[in-house]
Amino acid sequence: MFTTTGSRGLYKAPLSKGLLLVLNGLTVMLTLLPQYQDMFIYNLQAITHQHQVWRLICGRFVCLDVKDSFCSSLLIYNFRIFERRFGTRKFASFLLGTWCLSALVDLLLAQAVLYLFDYEVEEVSAGLLAPVFALFVPFYLSVPRMPVTQVLGLIHITNKSLVYIVGLQLLTSSPFMWLLALSGLISGGLYHSNVLWLQKIVFVPAWVSRIGRFVLEPIFSSSQPSDETPLGMGATLDIQRQQRMDLLDQQLLLAQYNEARRNTSHQPQAGLLQWTRLFPSLRHRGQNRPPMQPHPQAQTHQSTQGAGGGRNTFLFLCVSHCFMFFCLCKNFGSLLQKNANQSPLFSFVFTSLLKLICPLQTPDCAFDPQVARLVEMGFSRIDALEALRASNNDINLATNFLLQH
Predict the structure, then answer these.
(1) Residue 251 lies in a domain
(2) 402: which of 24, 212, 262, 349 is 20 to 30 A away, CA to CA?
(3) By the 8 A CB rule, do 95 and 119 touch?
(4) What are phi and psi of 258, to 5 degrees?
């Protein structure tokens, strides 16, 4: 939930899932049945003076406060990474060892408060709180810090910040919660450091683990998340994080590659002119192209015929355009001579138009050898003429355009 290592959900964490379901279910039941809450009150004075030792079990198992239950559930859900890393049996041994040690440390801390401040601690918060605080010890020592963001450029937010905030919220929920938190940290440090070989003294036996694997694990086991790419479960958190980062890098590269392909397919052609907008007919250039001949001799003969036909068309177009140009010049010249003295602006406008008419009346196939060369390459004559006209009779640009389209 808060960290970025491992898979989401409770996959490969049956003990964490069982604790969440059972403890929260009992909390809801006791909230609905308040007459039974007295049996689960964690009263240190009743334990020491009235010898109600059974309260060490009932009072340290179920939370009576919904807020404490919610915060501890969030922490248990986050600390499920240790069950994946250590295994269910070793994780259960850690919870069992810290639970037993914290019971002794609670009584010692209560006596220390009585001796130092002359104040007797009677009742503290009930629930599986001390082992939850004990899990902060391996969380602090084993989980690496990864920067996430900064607040005002001074406060660094990491992947562990929200976990500590939830722990602080749980710490301030009741007046004597600090006693349980200190007890849990002390017991967690002792068990994690294996002081006096505690890990060999207090642990879950193998036969209990086998019974739980066959009886309880099928009930509380969770399937692998279907919306998540399967990952290899690394032996350490660093390996799991590296696997996650490698997968994210692969997904990022794949997304960039797909985005580049989409941009290439939809991006208009670079240059001053957008060929596909000016000449949409060239998108179907294959329909205008003449069928290819199977023999090279037939292709050479066809290209020669195309070149000859191009010369005849060139001569006809040159004569026709020259005649049209001559007529236009004659008409405009007589019009200018008639209106030059009356309107100098009119004379200037028509002179400019005459200069513009000359390049516009240049024949499309003024460079017939270039058309013949493109036809010899296998392009149709219509496409070659349009490409040359669009590229201002530059055969290199025309060839690139025909090859790309």
Answers:
(1) no
(2) 262
(3) no
(4) -65, -40
